[in-house]
# Entry
Amino acid sequence: MIGMRMVDLIAKKRDGAALTNEEIEWIIRGYTDGDIPDYQMSALAMAIYFRGMTKEETAALTMAMVHSGEVIDLSSIRGVKVDKHSTGGVGDTTTLVLGPLVASVGVPVAKMSGRGLGHTGGTIDKLESVPGFHVEISKDEFLRLVNENKIAIIGQTGDLTPADKKLYALRDVTATVNSIPLIASSIMSKKIAAGADAIVLDVKTGAGAFMKELAEARQLAQAMVDIGKRVGRQTMAVISDMSQPLGYAVGNALEVKEAIATLKGNGPHDLTELCLTLGSHMVYLAKQAPSLDEARRLLEQAIDDGSAIAAFKTFLAAQGGDPSVADDPDKLPQAAYTHPVTAGEDGYVAGIVADEVGTAAMWLGAGRAKKEDAIDLAVGIVLHKKVGDRVRKGEAFATIHSNRPDVRKVEEKLAAAIRLSPRPVVPPPLVYETIV
Ligand code: URA
Ligand code: CA
# Structure
């Protein structure tokens, strides 16, 4: 726009006015191209942090970031492409389970995934613990596999949402990450650029989550649902508990093993239940069932009759993986040492601080702190107890899987993460709210 100046737009936001769509597009284009320097973008991010954004501004920011780079065209895939996104969390095995599960009832799953930083690897790292499995497939092969098998996963290709990459990195070092419109637009821009027609969000809340408080999680969920509505992508959100890790396993191969058990109907209750809940919404949005109840029934049946695990095997084999790991999960990488962590007294589990358990897994080598770090796919932690469970003195509440004999620090970290109470404890709910 002729005559537009970044300094004036910063001042406008600083004073609490709303930016127009054209102004937001101009800013994101200029910032992506390098015409707007980091120091001005930092000032704007801080103004947004304090002043917020209207729904209209947030939607405009999202779409400006979507169009800052490549947008994946999934139109050659038949059906409604529904993507799922979980915000943070520890040892979150839902993606591994949900992909094959919903694919087995006909929902196309065209997943593009990265490696990322964190307590454990990303979905791709986890799947690479299956011997031979790889995501280096061409885009044509990827689209063909989704049409044929309803599921495929490809490594991040091309240049999706470069504006978000740059802005997120800038926010990270300018104390402006924690702004609802900035987080919501960041997450939604990536899903939309990756080709999603409809989006199911799993917003975690609790000690192990990005949004520690329910009220914050609700605001974030609502902001993302609002964006979806405004930009023509059906979007809904489930707010789920991450005050303790989901399921029992935290680690890469360990989570694949847990996903296999869940797809066969022998998984942890909480992981199974959350996958059925999120999965029902995916099936419903993909128009593969006329109601949520019917969607859930289809998914339960797919687990019972073996089609869910069969879809997982087909998916693995199609991308070079050994499908027999589903029959014999001991073929997955195994750690050299296992070390039980035992309770020092009788009691009830009152809390398992999820991000502390995640940190313990990271210390074992399950995750990356820096992009260049190598991951040990075999290591991690398997919990044996959940909040509310009874433990006896000397009983193991967790097992450390390690490739180093000395796990003293990890053991101390875990012991500190698990709180016992002498009196019975009511476990937290798994799902707090659903926002549509
Ligand atoms: N995750 C994202 O992708 N973006 C944010 O801004 C925060 C969390
Ligand atoms: Ca898990």
